[in-house]
Design goal:
Layout lengths: L1 E9 L12 E4 L2 E4 L7 E2 L2 E7 L5 E6 L8 E2 L4 E4 L4 E7 L13 H19 L10 H5 L2 E12 L8 E11 L3 E10 L5 E13 L5 E2 L3 H7 L26 E6 L14 H10 L3 H6 E10 L9 E7 L5 E2 L2 E2 L1 H12 L3 H7 L2 E11 L4 E13 L9
Antiparallel strand pairs: 1-3, 1-5, 2-3, 4-5, 5-6, 7-8, 8-9, 9-11, 10-13, 10-16, 11-12, 12-13, 13-14, 15-17, 16-21, 17-20, 18-19, 20-21
Helix pairs in contact: 1-4, 6-7
């Protein structure tokens, strides 16, 4: 077989020198023949071997080992004085719901993807799911403990988005990651998100302190900027079997597992939203979600989703509002509590995911969501 070196440089334009007999174009890559040595261009090394019938067989070493500033294939660049990351994406048809706006699950997937691409561009990525070289040596993986997403306006199908992400310190052993999603055309901010991450030993599944080696890798990327300023985290109450809405028998599929072999956090959100009453989903859009992750969910566990509407306004400045209590009581007897809350324009729910065991329930996630009335005004200009 003849071995060619394959440079990771797009070569779709006629300005590329493809007149030489030794040069071939394979899927947009420029191949230079008569050499078995590799060519390191930018952030990766790739090989192309002429196989059967002259077809190129590509062996890939995909993970860059040095910091990159531009990724033309992912439409990503390094920003914020060399420590942040920005990716430009187009909203795909499979990322929107019946109303042609992006679903919350799609937003969470985009946040996860840009976070991983940020680590990719840093040159720190080991062979794990966002884990650095130091983390891989110590059998450590990232786990999210808390996340909040605020949505001011949902992007629509075909809209071009810019997603910025950056990281900062969270206590002695944690890391904060934030995001901002805006319109590429107008600059209007659609959504903001923040999250807290800690390290867990992949073998023992126990939380771990941050080794000095890992701290030395990631701390130069830390900045103080915050997408959502939260002075004191909002308390989320634990729900039990007395919750108003319960959806039982939820079980993860193999496709729900991520590269760390636990159920992806996006799946948790889907389970939580399944317990929301249909009349709320039809007339309201989620504007804020807070998630507290308590434990992992195994592939064989059966999950129960709990949901309880909050009765806003009953307590004001620590004092019970009797007028509001009487209003809620009359609604409960008449048109129903949920309809009363919906008439107020904003609804809030407390959520819980749990696994039922013999004599007790193990919490997976606690959550809180805020919903506002839908405004069905769509503009299809990019």
């Amino acid at each position: 077989m003849t071995t060619f070196s394959l440079s990771y440089v797009p070569c779709f334009r006629t300005s590329c020198d493809d007149n030489d007999d030794r040069t071939r174009i394979v899927s947009g890559f420029m191949i230079y023949g008569a050499s078995s040595t590799t060519m390191k261009i930018g952030r990766t090394t790739m090989y192309a071997t002429a196989g059967v019938n002259g077809k190129a067989v590509v062996e890939r070493t995909m993970i860059p080992t040095q910091k990159q500033f531009l990724d033309p294939f992912r439409q990503g660049i390094i920003i914020l004085d060399g420590v942040g990351y920005r990716q430009t994406v187009v909203v795909r048809s499979y990322e929107v719901g019946p109303d042609k706006t992006v679903t919350l699950q799609s937003i969470l997937n985009l946040l996860q993807e840009t976070a991983l691409n940020h680590v990719w561009m840093s040159g720190l990525l080991g062979d794990g799911f966002g884990a650095t070289h130091g983390m891989m040596k110590n059998n450590l993986i990232w786990v999210v403990t808390r996340m909040q997403v605020q949505v001011d306006q949902y992007p629509i199908w075909g809209e071009i988005l810019e997603i910025d992400t950056w990281v900062g310190a969270s206590g002695k052993n944690g890391m904060r990651r934030d995001w901002e999603i805006r319109s590429h055309t107008t600059g209007i901010v659609f959504a903001r998100a923040t999250s807290t991450w800690v390290m867990m030993n992949e073998k023992t599944r126990r939380l771990s302190k941050m080794p000095d080696e890992v701290r030395g890798e990631i701390s130069p990327w830390f900045i103080l900027k915050q997408a959502i300023k939260e002075e004191s985290p909002e308390k989320i109450d634990k729900l039990d079997d007395n919750a108003k809405y319960i959806n039982s028998g939820l079980q993860p599929k193999r496709s729900d597992l991520d590269m760390n072999h636990h159920v992806n956090n996006v799946k948790y959100v889907g389970w939580m939203l399944e317990a929301i009453p249909e009349e709320c989903l039809e007339n309201y859009q989620l504007s804020n979600i807070i998630l507290e992750y308590r434990r992992e969910c195994g592939s064989s566990e059966v999950v129960q989703s709990l949901c309880e509407p909050e009765q806003l306004g009953i307590i004001k400045d620590g004092v019970q509002d009797d007028k509001y209590v009487n209003y809620i009581h009359s609604c409960s007897i008449g048109v129903g509590l949920l309809n009363c809350l919906m008439n107020d324009g904003t609804i809030r729910f407390t959520h819980g995911l749990q696994v039922k065991e013999e004599s007790k329930c193990q919490e997976i996630v606690r959550g809180k969501t805020t919903w506002k009335k839908r405004t069905n005004h769509y503009s299809y200009s990019g």
